[in-house]
Design a protein that fits this description.
heterodimer; A: alpha/beta; Rossmann fold; 2 domains; B: 350 residues; alpha+beta; seven-stranded antiparallel sheet; three-stranded antiparallel sheet; 10 strands; globular
Chain lengths: 200, 350
């Protein structure tokens, strides 16, 4: 399938930059997203109120919470985990004003989990600033049994739901926050290419 | 010949023993898509407000000899995998739009087979070929045995995807999709127009989708449009979904020079787009027509044309459409029928 053409459903991620003309700013980040937060706070901060929800990746050696605490005097909430960040966001969203600008940084799975929360309040993903940080790991949706596996690093992935070996297509669903996985050896059962780490 | 009056529905299968075939009349009206010896993507949109009598373009929704068998195959697919039907919650107006479009079209164009009586919002629908007799209140979901769009979606051929229009884009927020050429409604639900078409090679480069989207955003109620698209399928299988790729994948490598003429089918999609009045959504119907290489080759003109198109096909498109394994075999099979004479422009069989 891959002959060098670009698939448009694959999301593009940029570096976080403060947006103008907002009533407030909410920054949501996890793990290596801490670097993106630090870069963001090196820019001239907007005048409107800023909220920052952050959690370190507990399994990672590099931690950012302490540095961020020193740099961001107000509006910072450090959480225990990415899950806790999502819970805090869910709690605070009802108080956000129309015109709030959102910024997200972290793994791809984290970014789309955040957007899923924002969607409930009518925030379109195109209006959310997103920076992919740390890992290129993908969430993969098995088109056969509909299981979604997180943290997939290899070109061929064995589905945890049905055990099939899946080829990871570059086709991304924002609603599912995942790439499509399709059985790789359907035509010739057992003919499974070696898995290579291509999403480190 | 007036198809509407003389419709005889075939008992046939699109799986397992694959008894599907086309009558001589069905081959004759097959929407052969190649007007020239070379094929490349284009927007190729035209008005869909009637066509030549007997042709697949005559009516808004074409009903042919495969109607009953195709509806039965759809029911089987939905039974195995209910997620082939998806309607996001904000699409209820569009569901009723679809009830109106399907019932009005079929009862007007095929009065022998379908009957619709309206007394205000009290509607009475009779579908003779499928044996359905249903009274319901238009706009009241509780008066139908299932969601309104699923109810009518099970009574039409082809896949239907309903596109919600907002923010200058179209979103695939509803669909009944059981006979698709390797794409997934469950996966693509909620996607925007360009995301949904993401995997199509060459077309982005040509700016096709930008232009098509601009055009569709201005589609008017009462002025539907259509285009043809095509691929090839091994065996007359309607459900070539990624979901069931483990079932049909092995068929792709079962083609041999001996069976290629009967096994390989040209699959032409008549894609029609209708603006819906209440929801302002767009109904996108993808109606597939299947004919084996040998059925098409009963017309020498089509045999020659098909051979030349496949010979000249861009390698990206061949790979995307999944033809690589057997394309050369089809070309070789048709070679003895192609004397190299120049063919005039047009898709007609003779």
């Amino acid at each position: 399938m891959e002959r060098g053409y670009w698939i448009r459903s694959k999301p593009l991620y940029d570096s976080l930059v403060w947006k103008q003309h907002a009533t407030g700013h909410v920054v949501i980040a996890e793990g290596e997203g801490g670097i993106a937060v630090l870069k963001l706070f090196q820019q001239m901060c907007p005048r409107e109120p800023i909220k920052l929800l952050f959690a370190d990746d507990t399994s990672a050696t590099k931690k950012y919470a302490d540095i961020i605490t020193k740099l961001v005097p107000e509006g910072l909430q450090v959480c225990e985990s990415g899950e806790a960040v999502l819970a805090a966001l869910r709690e605070q969203l009802p108080d956000c004003l129309m015109g709030t600008q959102f910024y997200v940084a972290g793994s791809e799975a984290f970014i789309w989990a955040v957007i899923e929360e924002l969607k409930v309040y009518g925030v379109q993903d195109r209006n959310v600033e997103k920076e992919l940080s740390g890992t290129l790991a993908r969430s993969v949706y098995c088109v056969h049994c509909k299981t979604t596996d997180k943290d997939v690093h290899h070109s061929i992935h064995q589905c945890s739901g049905c055990g099939r070996h899946l080829f990871v297509r570059d086709h991304f669903s924002r609603r599912l926050g995942a790439y499509m996985g399709v059985m790789v050896d359907a035509e010739e059962p057992g003919n499974i290419p070696a898995a290579e780490e291509i999403y480190p | 010949m007036n198809m509407a009056k003389n419709l005889a529905f075939k008992q046939e299968t699109f799986r397992d023993d694959y008894t599907y075939s086309n009558s001589a009349e069905a081959i004759r009206r097959f929407p052969f898509p190649f007007a020239e010896d070379e094929y490349m993507y284009s927007v190729n949109i035209e008005q869909h407000n009637g066509g030549a009598p007997g042709s697949v373009f005559e009516h808004a929704i074409d009903v042919d000899e495969h109607y009953v068998a195709e509806c039965a195959d759809r029911a089987l697919v939905l039974e195995d995998d209910p997620l082939r039907y998806i309607a996001l919650p904000h699409m209820m107006d569009a569901q009723w739009d679809m009830v109106e479009l399907v019932m009005d079209s079929l009862s007007t164009d095929y009065p022998e087979q379908f009957k619709l009586t309206k007394d205000g919002d009290n509607w009475h629908w009779i579908n003779k070929p499928l044996g359905i007799d249903q009274k319901f209140v238009f706009g009241d979901e509780s008066t139908l045995p299932m969601q309104p769009f699923e109810f009518v979606g099970r009574q039409v051929q082809g896949d239907w995807i309903i596109l919600d229009q907002r923010d200058d884009d179209l979103f695939a927020d509803m669909g009944i999709v059981t006979s698709q050429a390797d794409w997934s409604m469950a996966f693509d639900a909620g996607m925007s127009f360009k995301e949904w078409h993401g995997p199509v090679p060459q077309a982005n480069e040509l700016g096709i989708f930008d232009r098509a989207l601009k055009y569709l955003l201005h589609l008017q109620y009462g002025s539907p449009v259509r285009r043809l698209n095509w691929t090839m399928t091994v065996n007359p299988r309607l459900d070539t979904s990624p979901e069931n790729y483990p079932l049909w994948g092995p068929d792709n490598v079962s083609v041999t020079p001996e069976n290629v003429g009967d096994k390989v089918h040209l699959r032409v999609e008549l894609q029609a787009l209708f603006r819906l009045p209440r929801s302002n959504a767009i109904a996108f119907s993808v109606r597939g027509y299947l004919a084996s290489v040998n059925e098409l080759a009963t017309y020498p003109r089509w045999a020659k044309r098909l051979r030349r198109v496949l010979t000249n096909l861009h390698p990206d498109l061949s790979e995307y459409k999944g033809l690589d394994f057997y394309r050369q075999m089809v070309i070789d099979h048709l070679a003895p029928m192609d004397d190299g004479t120049e063919l005039e422009l047009g898709t007609h069989p003779e």
